[in-house]
Amino acid sequence: KDVFFFNQMKSFLANTISYNKEFESKTIFNNYDLEKNIKLDFESFTFEGFIDKVMYHIDGDDAYAVIVDYKTGNDVATFDNIEYGINLQLPIYMLLLKNNELFKDKNLHIIGFYLQKVKIVLFNNKKDIDSQIRENLKLQGYTVKDINLINMFDPGFEKSEYIKSLSLLKDGGFSRYAKLFE
Questions:
Q1: Which residues of 25-41 are buried (b: 16+ CB within 10 A; e: fewer)?
Q2: Which has the closest alpha carbon to 111: 79, 69, 60, 68?
Q3: 35 vs 58: CA distance, rounded Å
Q4: Can you tell me the distance from the alpha carbon of 141 to that of 137, in angstroms, rounded to the nearest whole number?
């Protein structure tokens, strides 16, 4: 049983790496920090986080960044319960990143913060497996509501193959399913 699941996970991870490399070849966000440890000290407490992946691009005094957190469970990126202190991980990562040494003297633009599900998918036998894998690997989370900034990160964002539910309508507005922040 263990060998079976190991082989399934090995295959899934190979698909994940291939999918991410395909996207990474299309974006100018070609700098990465993996397992980025950031600490922010206040007088009476400390925020600390390990961001799984920070993708960034620096252009003069401006820096552009995307936060990706890998998940093996069924977590969702939402703002629904922030007022109750729930679902704070990704917003806290934004705060930490803004205070990180690499971006301290830069005008930092956070393009998005996302979860990427890294788990074995139970396939629907009525759809092809490759499209199900690709759909599962799409980034899930929030994207800045600025077409120029999004285009820097995801040149095909009009009907994104990389960010779940992100697309433009014929009139130039965003799909009602797009998760956006300003």
A1: eebebeeebeebebebe
A2: 68
A3: 20
A4: 12
CA-based end-to-end distance of the chain? 47
Residues in the chain: 182
The strand pairing partners of 36, in sequence order, are: 51
121 and 134 in contact (C-beta within 8 Å)? no
The one-letter amino acid code at 53 reads K
The answer on pLDDT for 84 being more than 60 is no
- Provide the pLDDT for residue 108: 95
Q: For 138-156, what is each residue's pLDDT tens digit? A: 999 999 999 999 999 999 9
35-83: pLDDT as tens digits:
988 888 889 988 888 899 999 999 999 999 999 998 876 666 666 656 6
| pTM of structure | 0.86
DSSP structural state of residue 157: T
**Helical axes 2-24 vs 129-137, angle rounded to 10°:** 70
Q: Looking at the DSSP assignment, which residues form a beta bridge with residue 41?
A: 46
For tokens 């005008």, name the residue.
107
